[in-house]
Amino acid sequence: MIDVHTHVVPLDLPFAGTSGDEWPRLERTGDSAVAYVGGQPFRSVDRSAWDPERRRQDMKEDGVARQVLSPMPELFCYWAAAKAADTYCRELNEWLGSQVGDDFDAFGIVPMQDPDLAAAALAQVKDLGLRGVEIGSNVNGEFLHSGAFHQVFAEADRLDLAVFIHPFHPHGFESVTGGPAASGVTFPNEIGFAMGSLIAEGVLAAFPTLRVCATHGAGSLGLLLPRLDRMWAMDPSFQERLPERPSAYARRIFVDLLVFAPDALAFVLAMVGHDQVVVGSDYPFMPDAPGAVLNELQSLSDTQRDRIREVNPLRLLNRQRDEPRP
Question: Which of 204, 218, 280, 281 suits a disulfide with 214, CB 3.0-4.6 Å?
Answer without folding.
Answer: 218
